[in-house]
Each structure stands twice: as C-alpha cells, then as structure tokens.
Amino acid sequence: MKTTINQVSKYVDQEVTIGVWLANKRSSGKIAFLQLRDGTGFMQGVVVKADVTEETFTHAKSLTQETSMYITGKIVEDARSPFGYEMQVKSIEVIDEAKDYPITPKEHGTEFLMDHRHLWLRSKKQHAIMKIRNQIIQATYQFFAQEGFTKIDPPILTGSAAEGTTELFHTKYFEEEAYLSQSGQLYMEAAAMALGKVFSFGPTFRAEKSKTRRHLIEFWMIEPEMAFTTHDESLEIQENYVQFLVESVLSHCQLELNTLERSLERLEKIKAPFPRITYDKAIELLKEKGYTDIEWGEDLGAPHETAIAESFDKPVFITHYPTNIKAFYMKPDPNRDNVVLCADLIAPEGYGEIIGGSSRIDDLELLEQRYKEHNLSDEAYNWYLELRKYGSVPHAGFGLGLERTVAWICGVDHVRETIPFPRLLNRLYP
C-alpha cells in the first residue's frame, strides 16, 4: 500500500510504502534511525539489523542527507515521538542519491541560508511555518465565505498609486507608464459598490528601502471592502477574522506549533473583542513609558507600537489618527475633523501592525477637496471619484498583511521566513 506520512495513522500495524527524502540519520550499533520527510510531514524510520537483509542494513547506514527513496515497512505507534508513529523499515529503494548537500545539521549563517532558500524550505522549522501559512490562507477563504464576501481580483498593474506615494515600482505598459500595485483597495471599493462585501487576496509591492524585520518588498495582502458599513462594524469584522485565524491554526497545526516551540497559552488568549485606544491615548501612554520625544501629529514607529503592545496580552486597535498622517481617502471623524475614522491593529509580543483600515470618504465634494490637497491627477483618479457620484454609500475596509500575521502566530523573528522566496532590499535570489 502506497501512502504519505500524514496518512500513516490509518495503517497502524500494516506494511506501507512511502516516497521520502532522508532529512537526517543516526545509527547505534545494530539499529539505524532514519529521519524521513515526504512534504506532508516528518517521521522516523527504524532499521533493525536483525530484521532486514544485510544489504538493506548496509544501505541504510550509508544513505546521505536528502537522498530520495521509496521506503517500505510496518507502521507502529510511538508515544515518545511528537508525531506519534514510526516505521519499522523492511526495504529501501533509492531513487536519487544526494551528494554534498550544503545545509548540514549544524548552525548556518542567515545569509548562507537565504542564498540556499530553495533548499532551506525543506527543514523542519521552515516546513512548519509554510504549513501554518497555508492554514491561515485556507481559514481566510473560509471566514470570508461564511461572512458572505465575494472574492475579487484587482489588477497588479496600475496607472497610478493607490495612496499617492512615490514608493512604487515603475514599468512600461506599451506606450504608457505603469506601476506594480501597492494595494488593491481602490479597485475593491469599486467592487464593493457592485457586490456589497468583497475581499481580495494577492501580491503587493512596495519600493520602500527598509531593512527591518517587519518589511518585505513583495508581500501578500488580504483586503476586504464593505458597503453600508460603519467604522465600528469594520473593527468587529477585523477582530473576529483575526480570532478565527488563530483558532484555525490552533485546531489544525498543533504539531507545527510544537515544532516552532510556540507558546500555545499566548495564542489561546486571542479572543474578541480586542482593546481599543485612541491615538491621543497612545501618545499619552508612550510619554508615560518614557518616549518623551513623540509629539501629537507624528506617526508611530515600530518601537512605539511595541511599547504600546506591551500593555496588552492580545492585539490592540489604535484608532483616530491625525488626518495629516493618513491617506487621502480616509473619512474624517464627524465630531473632530483633525482625526480620521481609522484603526491600526497592533499584534502583541512586538510584531507591530498587522491590519490597517478605515472608513472611506463617501462625500464627493470632500473627496474632490482631498484631491487638490494631495495634488492627485483628476485624469488618473476620475473613475474613483465617480464611485461617489453615482449612488455613494458609507463604506469601510482594511488590509491584513499575511507575512506579518504568519510571523506573529508562528512566533518567528523575521518576515523573511514567512514567505517561500522573500524579496528584500538586497535580495532577488533565488
């Protein structure tokens, strides 16, 4: 019977064949212990000299790291293993012998591992991170489907900047100028006017020359937009979504979380509702914590977000930022026009902002005023104005950064480990 590692629980005390690679091995006299992987998981194969042919045992002891093979044996339960099962090996059929595999079971520098990212992905820790990332993606589709959202795909090539910034990748689009998208939000607003509640899930690009552990040049965003939705209603959707993601990982990725030595207790605390503080309160809190140089009207940096998060054991919303540090499309607070109806969701444990969102301006005259203030081209953005011209409604939306969310849930230090092939300021290889 041919199967995979993640299915072996169905074949206890039965003989099966699995296509695997050798992750590592050790031998103890008359027993060889093979650490096997097949893409679905990791499992130990035990080769006992007395139970196999002399050729098979010699073969087992000479196997090199990352050699591919078909391995046959009986599946047995093993309470000592985190996985819970192992194989009592009967025979080995080598497919391809690997020689001089560069990532050996020892410490390697980050740059070396990044140069070999195509191979580093095979390691147990990186495998666990990718499996959790996959679970978060599955949970995202499940959440928005059950909440009545329609998936919409905005364009990646655009003729203008979503937020009027200059941190864009420029390209030629035949005879026109074009840019790689830094957000699908404006297009999602158009889709929300047609379909009510929509979300996108795709790559975004920021030509930001940043080297922090929270930044990538290419990353993935989930961007919902909702018609007939208030600021507070949007915050409720956001916290329910984040709670759903964490619960999904806790339900389906216990083995991977254990591999990463992630604190389950901290993740189990992630229950809505999340605390909310205004930007005003955040500035007061920072000053109390010794950040005396921060003044009202300045944007919050990573150290500030971390300091604020330390006061909470679950994500915290910072709301009502000053108008002049936020995007042109954000709706002013009707009771105070120097702040906007927006919120950043700050993850605990120093992982920073994972969601940014706001109510969008739905008044045509006010949006036209913002165009002038931000020197936006009527030609490039006329279609966006028309959304307010033909049946405008109150609406809100947000964007969640996948890689930062994966980093937080996994408890890994740098977002470069949360995407299969990271694009960084100094890295376009492999």
TrEMBL record:
Top-level EC class: ligase
Matches recorded under NCBIfam families: asnS (TIGR00457), PRK03932.1 (NF003037), PRK05159.1 (NF003483)
Alphabetized UniProt keyword annotations: Aminoacyl-tRNA synthetase, ATP-binding, Cytoplasm, Ligase, Nucleotide-binding, Protein biosynthesis
Subunit structure: Homodimer.
GO MF annotation: an example: asparagine-tRNA ligase activity
Taxonomy, superkingdom: Bacteria
All copies of domain Aminoacyl-transfer RNA synthetases class-II family profile, residue ranges: 130-430
A Pfam family per the record: tRNA_anti-codon
Protein's name in the database: Asparagine--tRNA ligase
Cross-referenced InterPro entries: Aa-tRNA-synt_II, aa-tRNA-synth_II, aa-tRNA-synth_II/BPL/LPL, Asn-tRNA-ligase, Asp/Asn-tRNA-synth_IIb, NA-bd_OB-fold, NA-bd_OB_tRNA
Annotated organism of origin: Gracilibacillus xinjiangensis
Sequence similarity: Belongs to the class-II aminoacyl-tRNA synthetase family.
